Amino acid sequence: MSGNDIVDRATAAAESNWKRKGFLEKIFTPQEQQYIHEAASPGEMVWKLWSMKESAYKIYTRQYGGRFFAPQKFNCKVLTGPEGKVEINKVTYHTITQLAENYIYSIARPVEQGKASFVNCCFRITEPGLRKQQEFINERMILHYAMVSGKERNDIEIIKDRNGIPLLYCSQDKLSIPVSITHHGNYAAFTIY
Q1: For labelling alongside 11, which of 51, 61, 152, 187 has CA 20 to 30 A away?
Q2: Does residue 114 register a pLDDT over 80?
Q3: Among residues 193, 45, 25, 23, which one has the least CA distance to residue 119?
């Protein structure tokens, strides 16, 4: 199981003012604020930590249920290079964050899951409108899974459970596979497993 989050750098710069009074204190722990203030690029660190928290939030709510807004409860630790950890309520997630030119992308997985394989894909969205973007992302995920699994495209669909969490469903195997989908601005990504 995994969670993911992507931040389009241009969209974040245009739509969010992370320097406004009280923003850092509302979202980030004192240690995280220190990471931001000491970073060579404070804005990049803001969105790195944000995407780490969001990716962990997605998997945490999938595992334990209930949606809530409490970003300070998700405590990020920046480790070496792209690696990090996010802790909440004594649960720890391992994160990997990609700092690309146009986006910042994080994936979170339970520490005990180790290095188990999973499918991951990040890409640019060119479709206008939210509905078209969702359709594009879903089709891209289905086609990608069909290619790596050898399953027929027509046997695969995306369904949501009663909590609105997406699952990749393969009718041939009667199997529901956890997925995490994210998009922001002109970029999207998904993980399967």
Answers
A1: 61
A2: no
A3: 193
